[in-house]
């Protein structure tokens, strides 16, 4: 599908390229540069540029251009979606997807591209599966690779591991405190006339999740009136048949942060009542107030219990963080002593063996990450 990929900065320099089939010359990007000169803003560049023998499909994000070269007609949104997933993966691995971060981790970038595409066809795009195969870069791994001379980030034990049958969630996920957070974010676009009546309104909403649950949890979310939602877009974890039949969200969530659903609520008819108040006339009004004291007391008790549990959880969380920081400080002191020993006596067999054991220690690796 994708023959080549070129990464171009705002100055027009190609700082990285990847070829899955025949190696193409950089001159193929001249068609992209011509389209770039005709546009005042980077967002105005046509996403699809046709050449005599190729199609250039590009996206602009984080002040970078990603140009994919294809040789046959395919759905353009397929390629655009892959390019955005690739950038999301880089941000997950490196924190930010910039020219500097890509250059500093070019080995990991090439390894990820080799695993994501097979002969130009998408093979694996889920972050959790790729992290099982290619470990994200961290300080400990960089120091170890520098000392041992190993430049690869592949997990040597991956061949002996049992893979998850769910591509977006790895096996063996464990948490001491199981938590699930859901953020419902909605943006309202409305047009109001001079009299204050709403002419048009629309809601764009999405649900962002942060899941920290042990094992393979199966979650279900229901809405009061799900038929109001239009143009719904789901994460691949959502069971589509369940939504179509019962209008509930049933899914096995990925580990960590992800966007579960995005939707739109179309314009609905509003009943506008104009309020006119004058000095003349008299209209009696009666307001009755009723308070259910027993329910208020029970609500107060529940609130106090929730606050107490929250305080206990925060105290436990702070204690765990302090222990983790102390442990990490000890490991850093140990690393400094090893580096001083290497500067004075070189890499001895004892130091090499100690580094190897340290690199394979899962507790140290988790703390470094």
Automatic annotation (TrEMBL):
Gene3D superfamilies: 3.30.450.60, Mu homology domain, subdomain B
Domain called MHD: residue spans: 177-369
MF term (GO), any: DNA-binding transcription factor activity
Gene Ontology biological-process entries: intracellular protein transport; vesicle-mediated transport
Subcellular location(s) of the protein: Cytoplasmic vesicle membrane; Golgi apparatus
Membrane topology: Peripheral membrane protein
Domain of life: Eukaryota
Subcellular location, principal: membrane
Keywords of this entry: Coiled coil, Cytoplasmic vesicle, Golgi apparatus, Membrane, Protein transport, Transport
GO cellular component: clathrin adaptor complex; cytoplasmic vesicle membrane; Golgi apparatus
Coiled-coil regions listed: 314-345
PANTHER family: AP COMPLEX SUBUNIT MU (PTHR10529)
Protein name as it appears in the record: MHD domain-containing protein
Organism of derivation: Rotaria magnacalcarata
């Amino acid at each position: 599908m994708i023959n080549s990929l070129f990464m171009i900065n705002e100055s027009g320099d190609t700082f990285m390229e990847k070829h899955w089939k025949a190696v193409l010359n950089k001159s193929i990007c001249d068609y992209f540069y011509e389209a770039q000169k005709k546009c005042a803003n980077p967002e105005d560049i046509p996403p699809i540029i046709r050449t005599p023998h190729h199609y250039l499909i590009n996206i602009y994000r984080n002040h970078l251009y990603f140009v994919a070269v294809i040789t046959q007609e395919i759905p353009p949104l397929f390629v655009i979606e892959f390019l955005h997933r690739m950038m999301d993966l880089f941000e997950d691995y490196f924190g930010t997807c910039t020219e500097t971060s890509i250059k500093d981790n070019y080995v990991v970038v090439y390894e990820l591209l080799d695993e994501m595409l097979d002969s130009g066809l998408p093979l694996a795009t889920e972050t959790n599966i790729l992290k099982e195969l290619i470990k994200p870069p961290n300080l400990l791994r960089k120091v170890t690779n520098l000392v041992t001379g190993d430049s690869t980030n592949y997990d040597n034990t991956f061949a002996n591991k049992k893979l998850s049958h769910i591509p977006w969630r790895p096996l063996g996920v464990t948490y001491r405190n199981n938590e699930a957070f859901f953020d419902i974010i909605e943006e309202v676009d409305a047009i109001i006339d001079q009299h204050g009546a709403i002419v048009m309104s629309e809601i764009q909403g999405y649900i962002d999740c942060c899941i920290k649950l042990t094992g393979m949890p199966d979650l279900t979310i229901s809405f009061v009136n799900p038929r109001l939602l239009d143009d719904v877009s789901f994460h691949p974890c959502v069971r589509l048949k369940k939504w179509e039949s019962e209008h509930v969200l049933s899914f096995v969530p990925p580990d960590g942060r992800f966007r579960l659903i995005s939707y739109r609520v179309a314009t609905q008819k509003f009943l506008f009542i104009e309020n006119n108040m004058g000095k003349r006339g008299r209209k009696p009004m009666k307001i009755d107030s009723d308070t259910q004291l027993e329910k208020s007391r029970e609500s107060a008790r529940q609130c106090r219990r929730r606050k107490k549990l929250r305080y206990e959880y925060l105290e436990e969380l702070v204690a765990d963080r302090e222990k983790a920081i102390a442990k990490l400080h000890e490991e850093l002191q140990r690393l400094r002593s090893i580096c001083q020993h290497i500067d004075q006596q070189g890499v001895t067999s004892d130091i090499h063996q100690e580094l190897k054991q340290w690199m394979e220690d899962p507790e140290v690796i988790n703390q470094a990450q």
